[in-house]
Design goal:
266 residues, alpha+beta, Immunoglobulin-like, 10-stranded antiparallel sheet, 5 helices, 10 strands, 22% helix, rod-shaped
Length: 266
C-alpha cells in the first residue's frame, strides 16, 4: 500500500511539473508579424562593470527571431567589454567591439522566443577564458502578432463527365405507325349490276352502201326451202329482197308476242 502511494505521488508531481513548464513557455516566434521592432531590453547577471543598453532591435523574418543589442563598459571606462562570443541554442555569435565607445555589440543573435532567454557568454577578462551564464530579457508586448493564415479554399467539385470509351446509349426506335384500315366498299355500290353495252344496231342497206363508213358484212341468206314438184313446175316470179323477208319475220314475231300478252289465259 505504501509503494502505491509513493507511485501515485510521483505521477502527480510529474503532472504538476508538465503544467508549470507549459505555462512558462513564451509565445512562439511564428506568432509575430515580420518586420523590425525596437523593444525594451535588459540582461540579468551582469556585474557592476558593464551595463546593457535599454533598447534592442528585434528582427522577425519568416517566423525566426533575431536580436541586436549592445553592452557598454562603465566602471572603469578603460576598454570595451571583453567577450569572445555569445552562445544560444542556435550557435555562437561573435560581437563587434568599439574601443573608442567602450561598447560590445552583438548583431543578429538568433533566439528561440521573446521574454526570458538563457545564454552563455565567454569572457577573456580574467587570466583564462571562461563562460558566464546570463538571461536576456526581451519585452515583446509591442510586437504585433501575425495575422492568421486565410483558410484554404476548397477546390470546386469536378464536373462528372461521361467516359469517352463508353458507347453512347442506343436510341429506342419510335413505334411504327399502324396502317389505316382499308375502307370497306359500299355494299350498295358493289351490288349494283354493271351496265351491259347497248346492242349494235344493224346498219340499213343505204348505210352499207356509203363508201366512207365501214361496211358490215351481210348475213348469210337462209337456205331456200325445198319446193314441191308443183312449185318447181310453176313459173318463177320475181324474187323478194332479203331485207324485206327479215323485216317481215320480225314483225310477225312481235305480233305473236303481243297476242300472248293481251289474250287472257284460259
Amino acid at each position: 500500500m505504501i509503494h502505491l502511494c509513493h507511485r501515485f505521488s510521483a505521477i502527480l508531481a510529474a503532472f504538476a511539473a508538465l503544467v508549470c513548464v507549459g505555462l512558462s513557455v513564451p509565445a512562439a516566434a511564428e506568432s509575430y508579424a515580420d518586420g523590425a521592432y525596437s523593444v525594451p531590453f535588459a540582461v540579468e547577471g551582469l556585474g557592476r562593470h558593464n551595463i546593457a543598453h535599454p533598447t534592442a532591435t528585434l528582427h522577425v523574418e519568416n517566423g525566426a527571431l533575431y536580436l541586436d543589442f549592445t553592452l557598454e563598459r562603465v566602471d572603469p571606462r578603460d576598454h570595451a567589454p571583453q567577450y569572445d562570443f555569445l552562445t544560444t541554442e542556435y550557435g555562437d555569435f561573435v560581437p563587434v567591439l568599439d574601443e573608442a565607445a567602450f561598447t560590445c555589440t552583438f548583431q543578429r543573435v538568433q533566439i528561440p522566443h521573446l521574454g526570458r532567454v538563457e545564454v552563455t557568454a565567454q569572457t577573456s577578462a580574467m587570466s583564462q577564458p571562461y563562460g558566464i551564464d546570463y538571461v536576456l530579457v526581451i519585452d515583446g508586448s509591442a510586437v504585433p502578432a501575425a495575422e492568421p493564415p486565410a483558410p484554404a479554399e476548397e477546390p470546386a467539385p469536378a464536373e462528372s463527365t461521361a467516359p469517352e470509351n463508353d458507347p453512347a446509349p442506343a436510341e429506342v426506335p419510335a413505334p411504327a405507325e399502324e396502317p389505316a384500315p382499308a375502307e370497306e366498299p359500299d355494299p350498295l355500290e358493289s351490288a349494283a349490276p354493271a351496265e351491259e353495252p347497248a346492242p349494235t344496231e344493224a346498219a340499213s342497206p343505204t348505210e352499207n352502201s356509203s363508201p366512207v363508213e365501214e361496211t358490215v358484212p351481210a348475213e348469210a341468206p337462209a337456205p331456200a326451202e325445198a319446193l314441191s314438184p308443183a312449185e318447181e313446175s310453176a313459173p318463177a316470179g320475181p324474187r323478194i329482197g332479203l331485207p324485206i323477208v327479215v323485216a317481215a319475220s320480225l314483225a310477225l314475231l312481235v305480233c305473236v308476242f303481243l297476242l300472248k300478252i293481251t289474250l287472257p289465259k284460259g
